[in-house]
Task: structure prediction
Amino acid sequence: MFSKVARRTFSSSVPSAYKVAVLGANGGIGQPLSLLLKLNTKVTDLALYDLRGAPGVAADCSHIPTNSTVKGYSPENDGLASALKNADVVVIPAGVPRKPGMTRDDLFNTNASIVRDLAKAVAANAPSAKVCIISNPVNSTVPIVAEILKSAGVYDPKKLFGVTTLDILRASRFISEIAGTNPAHEVVNVVGGHSGVTIVPLLSQTQHNLAIKGETRDALIHRIQFGGDEVVQAKDGAGSATLSMAQAGARFAGAILNGLAGEKDVIEASFVDSPLFKSEGVEFFSSNVTLGPEGVAKIHALGELSNAEEALVKVAKETLVDNIAKGVNFVKQNP
Ligand code: NAI
Result:
C-alpha cells in the first residue's frame, strides 16, 4: 500500500505521458540510451526494439522504479510494428559503428538499407511520430528517411531530426579544457552537418572569441570536427562513441519531449529539412531549432559569422550537397 503522501508525489512527478520507441536498443548506444530514457519522467511507455536482445534490455531497465512501462520487442510476431504503434517519438541508433580508419561515410553501404527499412516501418506504424536519427552517416541517413516518408505520403519536415547533439557536447567540453571553465556553462553553436568538415563550431559567437586564437583555435576546431576519431581509436576496433552519444541522444529526445509538452524556449541544434541554404541546393542543414508540440517550431539563422567561419560553412555546404544526394539516390535506386 502506498501512503497518501507517496501517491501524491508519484502523480505530480509525471507532467506528461509519452511513448518513446528505441530501434537498435541492444547496441552500444541503445542500451545506455534506453537507461537514460527510463529515467525521463515524461516517458511513460518505453518500447525497445532490436534484431536481438531487446527483451533482456527491457527486463533490466523495467526494474528501475520510474513511472514507465518498458517492453522489449524482436522481429518475431511483428515486433517492430508493435514497438512503433502509437509512439510519439522514435529514436534510431540501429546500424554498424566505425572501426579505426573509417569515416562515417564508410558506413553508408550497411546502414543505408537498415535505416531505409526502419523508416518504412515508421511510415506504416507511427506516421506522426517525431523521428530522431542517430545512425550514421547522419548527413545521408536523414535524407533517406525523408525520401521513404515522402513516398509513403507521410513526410512532415517538422518531424524529422538528425541528432548532432554530440558535437555540441564535445564543443562545450573541449572549449572548457582550454579556457579552464565549467563545461556545463559553455554554450556553443555548432552548425552544418555531422561528419568531419561539415561540423562547424561558431567560436566567434562564444565568450572566448578573442581569447582563443591562432593555432590553438585551429586545433580546437579540428578537435571538435574529428573528436569522434579519438573514441574510435581508443576503443581499438570495438566501436565508436556510445556513452557520450547516449547522453547526447537522451538530451535531444528530452528536448523533443519538452517541446511536445508545450514548454517554452526549448532550443537544440539538429540536422533538419531547412530553408537556410535551400536556394544553394542544400536541402538539410543543422542549426539551432526551437522545438514545439509539432516538432520544429522555428529554424534559427546562423547569426553573425567571422570570415573564417564563412569559409568553413562554404566547405560544409559543398560536402553536404553530395552527402544528401547520396542518400536520395540510394532510395531512388533501392526503393
Ligand atoms: P552497435 O553495433 O553497438 O549497435 C547497433 C545495434 O543496432 C545492434 O544492437 C544491432 O543488433 C542493431 N541493429 C542492426 N540492424 C538493425 C535493424 N535492422 N533493426 C533493429 N536493430 C538493428 O552500434 P552503436 O555503437 O550503438 O552505433 C549505432 C549507430 O550510431 C552507428 O551507425 C554509429 O555510427 C552511430 N553513431 C552516431 C552518432 C551521432 O552523433 N549521431 C555518434 C556515435 C555513433
Notes: Residues 23-24, 26-30, 49-52, 93-98, 107, 111, 114, 117-118, 134-136, 138, 163, 166, 194, 239-242, 245 surround NAI (CB under 6 Å). Confidence is low (pLDDT under 50) at residues 1-14. The chain has ten helices and eleven strands. Residues 307-333 form the longest helix (27 residues).
